[in-house]
Write a structure and sequence with these properties.
The protein has 26 helices and 20 strands. It is an alpha/beta fold and 636 residues long. The strands form four sheets. Strands 9-8-10-11-13-12-17 form a seven-stranded mixed β-sheet, with helices on both faces. A six-stranded mixed β-sheet has the order 14-16-15-18-19-20, with helices on both faces. A five-stranded parallel β-sheet has the order 2-3-4-6-5, with helices on both faces. The structure holds thiamine diphosphate (TPP).
Length: 636
């Protein structure tokens, strides 16, 4: 539990207003107490961690200098904004973060007037901030707009689209680049290498020394550099200023500034706040700063489940089966060993997707493209044109980014790209920005696409094998977390494309289930049997193409049919069944069970399943109500 008595200043801060009169010494105490508080709370309940520890001084300096919430701070992605939450009135609510009815783990406009823009997906901050800056200009207001973007998020193309546009529009806009050299995994930002080479280059350091001599102090940072470089030839200039790339895009570059020096940060923000045009402040920081276990295990403590405060060791739940993620990662390595054409692609999520296993075993067959989902897909399309079999492993929610690339670059050309969508369905604590609840719909409407969902981990292995053997665009989606713990056979078996399987014969109602819902239906069927209802369960396996033969058979044998999917009810599997029944003029009664057509908040997966009624009890209740009523077609 948090011992409030050990904090000298933290509990006096209820809004940024309170810190504006603090001395630098008090602010330093505040920073150290924010860190302690984060360790106290997050070690108990889990949450994003390393990013926030690295932005403590930056957050405090921004709220000290800028007049928030009038001035607008736009955090990119949002996982690093816990210190921002702590000093903007949500300190006590930190204990509820990511929990049902608690505060969000990301930015949320409805949560606080200090959250200028919602976030969760990366690389959006500069675009949103530019929009706000232009709105301010139209409205003839004086507010300042500041975007904070990490070096990881800078691997996303949208950041450059926004910078390019900022350079053209020339609105007053401050971009703070929080450069800690890490994404979740080590960053693959080529510009980082350029920066570090530049900053460690003896010529650059000599040059910086010269500026020091020239100005006597370093209070002008980039401005000093700019004045001197202006007198140098452009060749030398490009060799010597790390900000050249940003300057080419129309930004004035300042930095690098030590992201853990409150004095430097406050000074630079005070200095530049009234400059006009787009400005980039390059801040270097350390992820996990101030808490040794997080500094030493940056990747592991990017986000953590509850952990031991002293050691940083995660408190393990014992006895759960392997995750779908690791089953996939291991199966891919087995397949890649047999098939030299197979490669794996991740968009900055090697551990999250299980591709870290391929990276360790066969690094030459592994590609981390950065937070660049659109590029990942078209890169895969290019590989596929040359006979390589790319397996693109991207979370369901992040693949939304690459919709056009799937349509235009892969499906239209019927290229053989295997899409592996982890975190499909409700993901739990990360909430609506991260739920994978649209994939069955956005993939199903694409011609040439095959979509599979395994009922368990053994079927996942076989589906992956099937996808690699098949030729054309093909996707597999499965949920976050532990698989069922079924025995895994040695080797693989191909599954006939578009073939469903009967899991349980019944007489009263047919339950057509997709993926993890098959197991839930098994449990529902037991409950229903207790009430005298004998249900048949079909593991559909394919959402596209549907097994029409199976549907014909079910239509002939059952009057009442239920479709069950953990994806939006709009346009997904159930809709596909309805379309088929309508084409065939079948008159059966159909109930569709799926996720409702609204955004679903955060909570545990179990809590959320219960709330939306797709846990075994919820399914059984809905089926029972359906059987007792005379509905023709419906949604539950
Ligand atoms: C579009 C998208 N893809 C992937 C992710 C997963 N993700 C969350 S944070 C993160 C790393 C961000 O790195 P950086 O911007 O440098 O911030 P840091 O954590 O280092 O502060 C990634 C890949 C995401 N949020 N959005």
């Amino acid at each position: 539990m948090v011992d409030e008595s050990k904090y000298k200043v933290l509990f006096r801060v209820n809004s940024p207003e309170d810190i504006r009169t603090f001395s630098v010494e008090e602010l330093k105490t505040l920073c150290s107490e924010i860190r302690d508080y984060m360790v106290d709370v997050i070690s108990e309940i889990g949450g994003h961690f390393g990013g926030g520890l690295g932005t403590v001084e930056l957050t405090v300096a921004l709220h000290k200098v800028f007049n928030t919430p009038h001035d607008l701070i736009v955090w990119d992605t949002g996982h690093q904004a816990y210190p921002h939450k702590i000093i903007t009135g949500r300190r006590d609510k930190l204990k509820t973060i990511r929990r049902l009815n608690g505060i969000s783990g990301f930015l949320k406009r409805s949560e606080s007037e200090y959250d200028a823009f919602g976030a969760g997906h990366a690389s959006t901050s500069i675009s949103a901030a530019l929009g706000m800056a232009v709105a301010r200009d139209i409205q003839k207001d004086d507010k300042k707009v500041i975007a904070i973007i990490g070096d990881g998020a800078m691997t996303g193309g949208m950041a450059y689209e926004a910078m390019n546009n900022s350079g053209i529009i020339k609105s007053n806009l401050i971009v703070v680049l929080n450069d800690n050299n890490m994404s979740i995994a080590p960053n693959v930002w080529q510009i980082s290498n350029y920066f570090s080479e530049m900053i460690s280059h003896p010529e650059y350091n000599k040059f910086k020394g010269a500026i020091w001599d020239l100005t006597g102090k370093l209070d002008n940072f980039g401005d000093g550099i700019r004045r001197v470089t202006a007198r140098l030839g452009s060749g030398i200039k490009s060799m010597l200023t790390p900000g050249m790339l940003f300057e080419a895009l129309g930004f004035r570059y300042f930095g690098p500034v030590n992201g853990h020096s409150l004095e430097q940060l406050i000074k630079i923000f005070e200095q530049i706040q009234n400059y006009s045009g787009p400005i980039l402040v390059h801040v270097t920081s350390e992820k996990g700063k101030g808490y040794k276990p997080a500094e030493n295990h940056v990747q592991r403590l990017h986000a953590a489940t509850p952990f031991d405060k002293m050691t940083g060791e995660v408190i393990k739940k014992s006895g759960s089966p392997d995750s779908y993620t690791s089953i996939f990662g291991n199966a891919l390595v087995e397949i890649a060993k047999e098939d030299p054409a197979v490669i794996g692609i991740t968009a900055a999520m090697p551990d999250g997707t299980g591709l870290d296993i391929l990276c360790k075993e066969m690094p030459e067959r592994y590609f981390d493209v950065g937070i660049a989902e659109e590029h990942a897909v078209t890169f895969a399309a290019g590989l596929a044109t040359q006979g390589i079999t790319p397996v693109v492993a991207i979370y369901s929610t992040f693949l939304q980014r690459a919709f056009d690339q799937i349509v235009h670059d892969v499906a239209l050309q019927k290229l053989h790209v295997v899409f592996v969508l982890d975190r499909a369905g409700l993901v739990g604590a990360d909430g609506p920005t991260h739920h994978g609840t649209f994939d069955l719909t956005y993939l199903r409407l694409i011609p040439n696409m095959v979509i599979m969902a395994p009922k368990d981990e053994s079927e996942l292995r076989n589906m992956l094998y099937t996808a690699v053997k098949y030729y054309g665009p093909i996707a597999i989606r499965y949920p976050r977390g532990s698989a069922l713990g079924v025995d895994l056979q040695k080797g693989f078996a191909e599954i006939e494309i578009g073939k469903a399987e009967i899991i349980r014969n019944g007489a009263d109602v047919a339950l057509l289930a997709v993926g993890n819902m098959v197991e839930y239906c098994r449990k529902s069927a037991e409950k229903l049997l207790g009430n005298g209802i004998n249900s048949e369960i079909i593991n559909m396996r394919f959402v596209k193409p549907l097994d029409n033969k199976m549907l014909d058979d079910i239509a002939a044998r059952f009057n009442k049919i239920v479709t069950i999917e953990e994806s939006t009810i709009v346009g997904g599997f159930g809709s596909g069944v309805l379309e088929y029944f309508s084409e065939k003029n079948y008159k059966n009664e159909i109930l569709r069970i799926g996720l409702p057509d609204h955004f679903i908040d955060h909570g545990t997966q179990e809590e959320l399943h219960k709330i939306v009624g797709i846990d075994p009890d919820g399914i059984a209740e809905k089926v029972q109500r359906f059987l007792s009523k005379n509905i023709k077609q419906g949604v539950a």
